[in-house]
Amino acid sequence: MILASASPLTLTLALGASLAYAASATGVVRTGEKLTRAAVWLAWLLHGTLLSWSLLGADPRFGFAPALSVTAWLVGLVYAVESHFYPQLKTPWLLSLAGALAVVLALIFPGNLLHVNASAWLPLHWALGISSYGLFAIAVVHAWLMTRAEERIRVAADAHTGLPLLTMERLTFRFVSVGFVLLSATLLAGFFFGNQLYGAGHPVKWDHKTAFSILSWLTFAVLMVGRMRFGWRGRRAIRVLYVGSGLLLLAYVGSRFVMEIVLGRSL
After folding, report:
1. Residue 3 has pLDDT above 70, yes or no
2. In this structure, is the dihedral angle defined by the CA atoms of residues 179, 73, 129 and 222, taken in order, positive or negative?
3. Between the N and C ends of the chain, which has fewer C-beta atoms within 10 Å?
4. Which helix (H) or strand (E) holds 62?
5. Residue 211: pLDDT band by 50, 70, 90 thresholds?
6. DSSP string, 197-226
């Protein structure tokens, strides 16, 4: 639950980020797109400061909720940068809502203290893994927007995407490609340097996290081959993307949730 030692700064940053996310979620209708983007940037800055304070402080912790929080932060960053290069891209209010929920969830469930014998390279290993989470998450958001747009086009309604569908599709699979590279690097580092990363007594083992990680990698590999070799597009490619992303979510966040919350143990 919420740390008894949570500082006033932590609570202030969490409250500010949540309110900024909430403002951006409702701003499209009430204040217009420019102020909405400003609220998104403010939320991202406050959220990033909160993450830095929580993960790099004297007693750094990590778990399923901080992993979701970092992922939501990365998704917000990517979307904010995208909206700069593609001003016509509209910010989904669900992204802002997810960001606010991730901030609150990480405050309630801050995770476990990091292992004292962990390698100095462990943050880089985690950065690769969480970055792949973020890239696949933004790909899923884009895929969802494409699906909604296609459904609206079929009934002769406004698509509301702000971008042509082909442009959205290209962006989606660029994120998938980079996410696949980062996921591959994360898995290779974990397999070959597990003891060095996590310290003595933490060998690589075949558990649920490893199994789901490999299954997700294989699913994304099938998606990449299917798209490059057989030209997979549309609903077929999106379904495979959803399956791979779901398996990846179960790999770390799901495993940590069961261990931390259901079983009350640390990994």
Report:
1. no
2. negative
3. N
4. strand 61-62
5. confident
6. HH-TT-----SHHHHHHHHHHHHHHHHHHH
Q: What is the mean pLDDT of residues 56-72?
A: 77
Q: State which H helix or E strand residue 23 sits in.
A: helix 8-30
As given in the structure block, the two tokens for residue 23 are 């403002």
> Residue 250 CB: number of other CB atoms within 10 A?
19
The pLDDT tens digits for 110-137 are: 777 666 555 555 666 677 788 888 889 8
Q: How far apart are CA 169 and CA 163, in angstroms?
A: 10
Residue 93 structure tokens: 């209010």
Task: Compute CA 134 distance to the chain's CA centroid, rounded to the nearest angstrom.
Answer: 3
Question: What residues contact residue 76 under an 8 Å CB cut-off, 6+ apart?
Answer: 40, 43, 44, 47, 95, 99
Measure the CA–CA gap between 136 and 78, rounded to whole angstroms.
Answer: 11
